[in-house]
């Protein structure tokens, strides 16, 4: 273990005391990585050889197209003052011709449908890259970065008042983004993992918004609750040990930000096999796509990782699903997702019997990156069912980033 890694282990040992010693430094560290991945943090280093990993990193870092799509930028302000960053992809540019086209016989034309995408834990709006590329020009879209993620500001309630992050707070943040980026017109809400929980929290707090404006919703690789029961593919004894030591370990790591960030690369390589399990399920994923996801994860500071993690244990929004009962809904998950297992999507679909349930074969938690064409096609079909005049869209150049697994 490197000197930095040893310092981190000692810091964590101090935080959790005897519990850490009983589990053993190596075992507890594995548990930390596994449980962190279980919340969506980990993305596999992917290729077997160190040389291949380095080549993939260099190729993508120098000229990779993923995450390069940009829209019209905007900012919303959360209830606690946190500035939330979003981007809008319009159907047509804001030209004189476009402005004239939005007026009918001297009256303002109805606002277009807006599809709002909410990303998962330790990702950013760029995690929707493939879907964004396919839907450009088809429908108006909004992509935003959740508080403390991407280009959004660190949560003021957390940094200034040391308040815990809650899923309800994220739902309120989404409302602020909608008020700024899509204040009128029909909405389709799309959320992956934590983003899906955010959509549920929005419905729980603002049911009138769902009733009056939402015409469709998609829940991708997410859960309505009972995340404390997920074992992430670990033996029962191992998972129990992880649950005992993880809060203290994360707290310790979150207090040693500079130390942890220096050691992150080496730690990720050390636990590459474990990380792989919690990201993609297929045998091979395009190395450039894996590196893209890896960069998204690396941009999330460890103190943000620690700050958000407790919120998932408290998440329970099963009752909020009733607000979507009369709407076209897509519920989609990977069949080998160890983070939010497909059973959680089936539970969501049970509450919404008219929803389309899609369990994607050979897919893990980052299904929208692993099988982008399939996810985009199902989203395009949802837009058609929601009454949006849009043809089915495909990601032709990147139809599948994975090869079938064994």
Could you name the key traits of this structure?
single chain, 406 residues, alpha/beta, Rossmann fold, eight-stranded mixed sheet, two-stranded antiparallel ribbon, 18 helices, 12 strands, 14% strand, globular, hydrolase, AB_hydrolase_fold, transmembrane, membrane
Shape: globular
Low-confidence segments, given as residue ranges, are 4-9, 11-50, 94-106, 392-397
Q: What is the CATH architecture descriptor of one domain? A: 3-Layer(aba) Sandwich
Strand order in space, largest sheet: 1-2-6-5-7-8-10-11
Mean pLDDT score: 77
Please count the beta strands (DSSP E, at least 2 residues each).
12
Strand content: 5-15%
CATH domain fold name of one domain: Rossmann fold
Distance between the termini: 33 Å
Order of H and E elements: HHHHEEHEEEHEHHEHHEHHHEHHEHEHHE
Structural class given helices, strands, pairing? Answer: alpha/beta
Describe the largest sheet.
8 strands, mixed
CATH superfamily of one domain, by name, is Alpha/Beta hydrolase fold, catalytic domain
Keywords: Hydrolase, Membrane, Transmembrane, Transmembrane helix
InterPro entries: AB_hydrolase, AB_hydrolase_1, AB_hydrolase_fold
Protein name: Alpha/beta hydrolase
GO molecular function, one term: hydrolase activity
């Amino acid at each position: 273990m490197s000197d930095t890694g040893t310092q981190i282990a000692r810091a964590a040992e101090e935080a959790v005391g005897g519990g850490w010693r009983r589990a053993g430094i190596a075992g507890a560290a594995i548990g930390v990585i596994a449980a962190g991945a279980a919340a969506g943090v980990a993305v596999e280093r992917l290729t077997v050889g160190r040389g291949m990993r380095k080549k993939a990193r260099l190729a993508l870092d120098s000229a990779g197209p993923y995450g390069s799509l940009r829209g019209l930028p905007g900012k919303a302000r959360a209830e606690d003052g946190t500035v939330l960053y979003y981007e809008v992809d319009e159907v047509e540019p804001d030209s004189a011709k476009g402005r004239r086209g939005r007026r009918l016989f001297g009256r303002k034309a109805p606002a277009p449908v807006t599809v709002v995408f909410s990303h998962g834990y330790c990702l950013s709006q760029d995690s929707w890259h493939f879907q964004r590329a396919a839907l450009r020009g088809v429908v108006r879209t909004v992509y935003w970065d959740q508080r403390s993620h991407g280009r959004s500001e660190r949560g003021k309630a957390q940094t200034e008042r040391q308040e815990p992050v809650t899923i309800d707070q994220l739902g309120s943040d989404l409302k602020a983004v909608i008020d700024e980026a899509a204040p009128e017109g029909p909405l389709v809400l799309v959320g992956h993992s934590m983003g899906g929980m955010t959509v549920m929290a929005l419905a729980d707090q603002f049911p009138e918004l769902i009733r009056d404006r939402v015409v469709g919703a998609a829940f991708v690789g997410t859960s309505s609750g009972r995340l404390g029961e997920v074992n992430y593919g670990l033996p029962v004894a191992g998972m129990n040990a992880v649950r005992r030591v993880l809060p203290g370990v994360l707290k310790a790591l979150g207090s040693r930000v500079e130390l942890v960030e220096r050691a992150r690369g080496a730690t990720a390589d050390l636990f590459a096999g474990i990380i792989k399990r919690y990201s993609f399920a297929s045998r091979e994923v395009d190395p450039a796509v894996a590196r893209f996801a890896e960069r998204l994860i690396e941009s999330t500071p460890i103190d943000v990782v620690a700050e958000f993690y407790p919120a998932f244990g408290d998440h329970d929004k099963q009752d909020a699903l009733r607000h979507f009962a009369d709407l076209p809904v897509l519920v989609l998950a990977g069949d080998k997702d160890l983070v939010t297992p497909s059973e959680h999507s089936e539970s969501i679909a049970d509450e919404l019997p008219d929803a389309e349930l899609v369990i994607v074969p050979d897919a893990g938690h980052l299904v929208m990156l692993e099988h982008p064409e399939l996810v985009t096609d199902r989203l395009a079909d949802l837009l058609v069912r929601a009454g949006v005049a849009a043809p089915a869209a495909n990601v032709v150049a990147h139809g599948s980033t994975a090869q079938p697994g064994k």
